[in-house]
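Here is one chain, start to finish.
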Amino acid sequence: MPVIALSSLRYTANKEVFMNALKLMAILLAAFSQNLVAEEAGKPLEMTVYRSPTCGCCSKWLEHAKQNGFKINDVISEDMETIKARFGVPEKLASCHTAIVDGRVIEGHVPASDIQKLLQSQSSLTGIAAPGMPMGSPGMEMGGQQDAYKVVSFDKEGKHEVFAEHGTNQ
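Its structure:
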């Protein structure tokens, strides 16, 4: 009977038996790794949202994020200016709430589809923002009214450009 001592990578059996054992180990390792990746992919992304206690539209946006698979950590703050400065939100892109997901900053009423697009990109962007409070954006629904608005990306140097366009004038 051949003896295989895999822990020390010594073997007394023929090379074919040893190679078959290594192949089996590789297959098992690959299957285990795929299971871990699949488990991780099924988990909702955690999002920490900082918002003022007096803003009702932020609660509606939180619902939009939850409905699109984000797990929300809701942080009420009286000092939103400090939070925005801490996370590098350019003043001219500011809105009512600031969220952090997977190390990226999400400012204001950004649609979940744009957040997913940002998270899937390999860019070095700091985050994206829907400046102001655009009518018709997630959390700002007012019947059928929808203003045209832009979601803007920004980096740590404060450079920004249009990331996505929404509304009637696309």
